[in-house]
Design brief:
The structure is a homotetramer. By secondary structure, chain A is of the alpha/beta class. In chain A, 30% of the residues lie in helices and 19% in strands. Chain A binds chain C through residues 12, 182-183, 187, 189-191, 193-200, 239-241, and chain C through 12, 182-183, 187, 189-191, 193-200, 239-241.
Chain lengths: 348, 348, 348, 348
């Protein structure tokens, strides 16, 4: 039985980790960390867990926690995980960090985009970027830190990676137009996220400045051997709870058909349990992945302008956060990668 | 391995049966019946099942089906199940009928409220009303037909049953004000159920005439030994996918406190896995049960008017349809009652 | 040109007053009061008003304001209006108070239910309860304070008033089950009102304790000559922006048909511009009144239980707040009652 | 008093024309045409109009209608308007066609993209493309046919036009990612538009094939003197009733700042009542234009990739359909362009 601690268990992603791990046969959660709700019953904060979780919320004392558990999930604001880890802790437990602290390999880019000082740059190199479908080989029982990718980045990278890697598209022309449900904005009490502000509206935000931009650039840069890749990433807020939809555009470098594109996607994802390459002509829709760890990918060659349109959809709280974290945990502990994650999408 | 056939697999309840059974370790679905989509791939109708279900939709030939499976779920319009069953079939397979065909013991009431002739009244007596928490003892391996209760009735009966049974309230004063998400209206293409008609609106419907009324009356009548019980049941449509909330009112017959009321609920439900009696002062909310088979129950004594307010919430597609059907199946085959149904509610 | 000041112009009701008055040909708003956004441009707080309102938010100095305007709308938390008014002010301007400060004639009931001390009880008697359809005669150019009824109370009272007044129903058996969109909860930054908390869920709240209860009791008590009327009022939160739906139940005191009930409603409302008594068998739906000052009323005799079901729907921000306030203003200044309020409902 | 007839009055756009014209002081609607609801009371089809419209739905006999009215709005499926008009009719009344029949100047492109034969190509040349902000001079009392632009095209063209016209961007690199509320899909009873199918989901559709593409290309082609302009237009469906948001991308041809971009927008739109050019750094949101005829425009220079991001938002049923049609009517009859259209946006 793997003993799990969660720091930040009362955020939406934290609650989703709890939901998934309650259905994981090899795991027991022993620490529900939450600064905001310390000493309160977890099931009073998230009543979906009434009679399923009896625990009380704990603090985020990672030192103590490291003595009690095998793996820690940190679902916390940027900077917190980096401020807590040290060698002593890392020698005792594995860390799966759902924040951005260890995602970017270039600490300067981190500090520039996140506008905070990185408190533990010495661990950046060893941290593995936990996009399992791409970095599976590096996520092993020897890994100490997994930087779990976020929702926008997971969708964007998985949608674009094979096309960039195989040189079908010109990476300098990539435009990513992303749309997200509102759970990605977190559970903080802000006027902008009130029901009446979000419902019946949509907007772009963080235009030209969103922090997920350099992460996508870095990872796609690896795919095409470029360290100066620049692309446009524009996130939008949509009135729904869960779901990310990415519509990406790029100039084609080759004359290809939809079938050719599918063949390339299949080359990379045919054996991936969680990536579903859709048939030609079918567009991904977030309703078909809700509640599951699937990513659905669609594509359309636009011959009139010689561009490729690529689309990806996932549930931001599952494959875009908690599900991917559990997938990483499975890899870290040598379990079947989809253990506890074989949930069929829930519709409607 | 229990072999399952579903007639009406392409309705919302049918799809939910599929979702739940895919996570049930003792079951294999071998027949996806659907008149509307015959010969089409099931996963083309419900793309959430892409790469999870490879089957093609079949007809509703129950004779043939009976030779292939151990149990048939009928998630079909009223009247269809009754028109298909016969002795030969019932001797081969068990039927779990999600329609109303075998719910009402009085065939005249059925024909009056549903305005159709009952095609198989000879099986009404042996059919068990499949509200497991109340009729568990009658749902055994000898049972041939289970009449699976609907969403409104399950919520209403479970919320009111202990209070009626124990004589805390005057059954002649019961008023049930019920609110439902829109998946209860089914997948038929009707203007009234279009997104723009339902979204940002609410309404009562079937006021004084809704067909679930006599079913609630009949079952609560059993609880208090009355065959002439009459109550008010008013359903409302609310702009959300899933969820039933029942707010029920009745005159108190005894001087009780909230604690007393809880004690009565606990007497009936303390050991029930799927019924969660909430703490005093906590109101049920549908978000806390979504995707799960739980029913949450709250209550409030209103001393100024000497009435009791009772509230129940569940997911209409799970405990209100497919989940309850699987729960019944587990009982029929001697499995643990919550096998395949231990899903934590999904929030948000 | 009537000069208007608004205290609390940056709440949802305040913004709705602005929307309506921009379309009122006899009015000019000269003071946009807001404690939270003082000195900020109003159109930066509510961008719907970009290029329509150039003003900057002011404080709530009612003394100064009284010198500049003819009428003040106070759309503020309970207690504020009572703490600001005095004789000097009331001799200069009219006050239309959208809070509860002057709605209840019994100050003890106010202090008990609102749990605050009333700062200006001396004005309670002269304040007119501004439900125009019932108190029209008292809302004149001599009136100094109008207590503008709230959303739940307006719907409940208009729906029940003729039935109580005419003795069709037993007032001691009234049960009001009310459902509200979320704008009624205001623009405060609370976790409970975040999009993801409200969306795809519903709940009862304030069960047995909601502050609108005594207001409804007081007004309906006048209708039947009772000062001890007690009823049940249960509000619910529904995932939509605007709209109140009231479903009310009571025992019939007379043998009546739906036609008889309609005749009574027509007696009271036939000439009312803003009250639409629906045809027999038609239920009100909030979508049909959105954005307008209409109240739609439906009804159904339930002969099996000898009860009457009454239903009312309105837009909580219009007839339930700002629209009614403008209607009151029109009466105070001798304008046609529907001036500026002849907006057709917007659908979808 | 201008006498108006509407063919297709029972679609969403038709109902919105009715809503707007009820508030227009110079207009009387005398013909509510609807094939589907002929002889039914209009207010029974759209109950928002109860007690506001007493008329019964008529057929679409344009000959007869032409004798009774001054102007006909056709809010009908593609092809119908073209099949009804003739010289006799055009000599009697003006036609404002909300369908695509007369929008495209090249009949071959029409027939290729719409896959129907054009029944009245002889009138294409004289029809004026009714985007008032661009073609105002051509919409006069001598105009017989106005081709009223659709929602996607209005948003896209107004957002891109000044940038293309002034040569700030390379028109061959334009990518338009558009998101729409669901009312744009119409009131037809289709499974794909049911509440439960649309709610909590989003998707792209018509990728590479949407019929609005050539219309945008044609109009922007005029702006830059190109008849072979090709661009990408990708529409998405979002779970909300009203609202279009366009996010458009193009390569910059000049080194400009956000201030420079604003200056160009202001050059074109400063005096336009209905176009609101937002301040630097502010993104348009559909909630701020709901119910109104405004278009809000935002922009962001992305210097890292030397591209320009342009954003436009409007209410698809107002400026994207009925409001623009009324704006055109005002021009045709020499009325102030914003007569009846000075509604402030409604929020929330």
């Amino acid at each position: 039985m793997i003993k799990v601690g969660i720091i930040g268990a009362t955020g939406y992603a934290g609650n989703e980790i709890v939901r998934l791990l309650l259905g994981h046969k090899d795991v027991k959660i022993v620490w529900f960390g939450s600064r905001s709700y310390i000493d309160q019953k977890y099931a009073d904060v998230y009543r979906n867990m009434f009679q399923l979780v009896d625990d009380v919320c704990m603090d985020d004392n990672m030192e103590e926690l490291a003595n009690q558990v095998d793996v820690i999930f940190t679902a916390t604001p940027q900077g917190l995980c980096a401020s807590l880890v040290n060698d002593d802790i890392l020698n005792k437990v594995k860390i799966i960090d759902l924040s951005a602290d260890f995602r970017l390999k270039d600490v300067n880019i981190y500090e520039k985009w996140y506008k905070i000082e990185h408190k533990a740059p010495q661990y950046i190199d060893e941290a593995v970027y936990g996009l399992c479908e791409i970095n599976r080989d590096k996520i092993t029982k020897d890994t100490r830190i997994v930087a779990n990718p976020g929702c926008y980045t997971t969708t964007s990278i998985l949608t674009l990676y094979p096309m960039v890697k195989e040189g079908l598209i010109d990476p300098d022309t990539i435009i990513i137009d992303a749309k997200s449900g509102t759970s990605g904005a977190g559970r903080g009490a802000k006027v902008a996220n009130l029901f009446c502000e979000v419902n019946e509206s949509m907007k772009a935000y963080g235009v030209g400045t969103h922090r997920h931009t350099p992460e996508i650039e870095e990872q796609l840069g690896y795919a095409c051997g470029r360290d100066d890749l620049k692309l446009i990433f524009t996130p939008h807020l949509v009135p729904m709870n869960r779901g990310i939809l990415v519509t990406a555009y790029a100039n084609l470098k080759k004359d290809v058909t939809d079938d050719d594109v599918k063949a390339v996607y299949d080359k990379y994802y045919k054996d991936e349990y969680f990536v579903r390459v859709l048939d030609k002509g079918v567009c991904p829709e977030t309703r078909w992945v809700e509640g599951s760890n699937f990513v659905d990918i669609g594509y359309k060659v636009e011959p009139r302008t010689h561009r490729l349109i690529m689309m990806g959809a996932l549930d931001n709280l599952v494959k875009g956060a908690a599900g991917q974290a559990v997938q990483n945990m499975n890899l870290l502990f040598g379990l079947p990668e989809n253990e506890g994650l074989q949930l069929a999408p829930m519709f409607p």
